[in-house]
Amino acid sequence: MSEIMTYTKKMFDPLRPKTELIDITDIAHSLSMLCRANGHFRTFYSVGQHCINCAREAEARGYSPRLQLACLLHDASEAYLSDVTRPVKAELPKYKEIEEPLQEMLWNLWLGAPLTEEEKRQVFEIDDAILAHEFVNLMGESIVDEMPEICSQPEFSFTGFEVCEREFLQRFRELTQ
Questions:
Q1: From CA 14, how far away is CA 7, in angstroms rounded?
Q2: Nearest to 53 by CA among 38, 75, 37
Q3: What pTM did the predictor assign?
Q4: Closest Cα to residue 148, out of 54, 70, 78?
Q5: 123 and 40 in contact (C-beta within 8 Å)?
């Protein structure tokens, strides 16, 4: 059996995903419960909170609602696949073969069209900038030689999963209406 049961009790096959089974409630719930950095931060900090911080940074940079939504959803595939640390993911080509089409499917579902290469660059630039600030704020250590500037004021303190899930869904609704 290659299916997983989602929070809303859908049987979802991450190897053969079907758009009609994708549910933003499942994504928001799952990402709010997945811990970043493989659980190695000093406190619980979720993938969902990271995504919210990325969307806020896109907004603070004056980027379009489309790009803000792309940032909010940039780790949405992890709701169905789980989070894998960057050094491990780089060594797992099969994981990337599964993750990339699923992530594209998720973006296309809510963005209406594929991201351009420039939009992807902007999303991942924000992702990397927030990541660098997460380590400084949550570990007291820098993982980069030069700290990237950010325009927003991300929230790095503990946020319970219920609060994160609600905030993720609220931000999603604001950006899709």
A1: 14
A2: 75
A3: 0.96
A4: 54
A5: no
